[in-house]
Specification:
390 residues; Histidine-containing Protein, Chain: A; SH3 type barrels; 4 domains
């Protein structure tokens, strides 16, 4: 009986592999090479562009938020005289019912790689940050941040809006929170109940000024009071941002001791690129999200003969150089502050030195230093002023 059951099981497995061997893989489709070409051209970085398309025999399936990429793919297939059935979904999804915009309603929204709380933290978005909504899944939304990063956010942390509601929100006068950490209160009383915590960079709509406070409105409609001394009018803040060497250093040191948090970009915790991104944000410039993206921004600084060409604010990149069969890997970033020192998020935000005689000499980072870049407002198409957020 046992032998008979085993033999039957063996035949079933054999038939399964035999059948699977006759099925044509998606990658063998003559359409697939064209899909790969368009992917490499329009969406080489899946963190900032979505082109999840494949071919099942002659059927094109998947989704993208790039209408131009889809149009180019279909035209190439037509020009190549390849028959196809177009089942590619364009995002934003139609079931969003026109609510393709959202604004963050909590002090810091955690954006994840998948639509679940257990998923890896990809990045963060602060209160008042506008988002492009691409699709929904259960209580989660796939969104794109103003710096084009694509990730999932819990619906409880955003206010969905149609274009009309979003335009009204954009037109309102706003304040930006400039203390590192604090609270919004239920009444104009710092000893009273709180409505929410707040961190540097949070943006709120102004209702009116009252008794040393701004009465403010959250994107989801909640009313709260914020002390005048903790905020600046958003328009004034944007006009006064000036990424000088000293301002960048001062902003970096303002965050000293902040804990390391993988995926963090806020005063609640930062990873290495989240730290440099926040420092530049505080001074009016928006950097790409990750170290491997930031390394492509700005102008190369010559460090072949030492550190004499370095200026405060320059970014230092660390990792492993390209070798035969392996591409370069950029895994860490810090910011130069002068005196052979740099500041970075490693365990927590701290300073390290390239000087072997210094107490805070960082032999490990020196051993994997790759290159340094200098950032300026006109350094790259990836750079843009923070006003683009609002």
């Amino acid at each position: 009986m046992i032998r008979s059951q085993f033999f039957g099981y063996f035949l079933s497995i054999l038939m399964l592999f035999s059948c699977s061997g006759t099925k044509k893989a998606a990658g063998d489709s003559p359409l697939q090479s064209h899909i790969t070409e368009v992917l490499n051209e329009y969406a080489p970085d899946k963190r900032t562009a979505l082109f999840d398309v494949t071919a099942r025999e002659k059927v094109l399936v998947g989704e993208t938020n790039l209408p131009a990429a889809k149009a180019v793919l279909l035209q190439r297939l037509t020009n190549a005289n390849l028959a196809y059935v177009d089942s590619i979904k364009l995002l934003p999804a139609s079931d969003l019912a026109g609510k393709q915009k959202a604004v963050v309603t909590v002090s810091v929204a955690n954006l994840r790689t998948q639509g679940k709380h257990a998923a890896e933290l990809a990045t963060q978005a602060m209160l008042g940050t506008p988002l492009q909504v691409l699709k929904k899944q259960m209580g989660w939304y796939l969104v794109q941040t103003p710096d084009n990063y694509i990730a999932w956010v819990d619906g409880g942390g955003i206010a969905l809006m149609d274009n009309e509601a979003f335009a009204r929100w954009q037109q309102q006068s706003k304040i930006v929170y400039t203390s590192t950490f604090g609270f919004a209160y239920a009444s104009p009383d710092v000893k009273g109940l709180t409505v929410s915590d707040l961190v540097y960079g949070d943006v709120l709509e102004i209702v009116k000024q009252r008794e040393g406070f701004y009465e403010t409105r959250f994107p989801d409609g909640r009313i709260a009071y914020v002390p005048l001394n903790d905020v600046v009018l958003l328009k004034d803040w944007m006009q006064t941002r000036n990424p000088t060497e000293q301002n960048l250093v001062n902003s970096g040191k303002q965050l000293m001791g902040l804990p390391y948090l993988w995926g963090g970009t806020s005063a609640k915790g930062v990873d290495c690129s989240g730290f440099t991104k926040m420092v530049y944000f505080m001074n009016g410039l928006v950097l790409p999200r990750d170290a491997s993206q930031q390394v492509h921004v700005g102008e190369l600084v010559d460090t072949k003969n030492g550190w004499n060409n370095m200026k405060p604010g320059d970014l230092l990149f660390f990792g492993s150089p390209a070798s035969e069969g392996r591409p370069e890997r950029v895994v860490h970033v810090g910011m130069w502050i002068g005196g052979k020192e740099f500041i970075h998020a490693s365990n927590y935000v701290r300073t390290s030195s390239m000087d072997s005689a210094a107490v805070n000499f960082d032999k490990h980072e020196l051993s994997r230093f790759l290159r340094a870049k200098r950032i300026s407002p006109s350094a790259s198409l990836y750079d843009f002023r923070v006003k683009s957020f609002y």
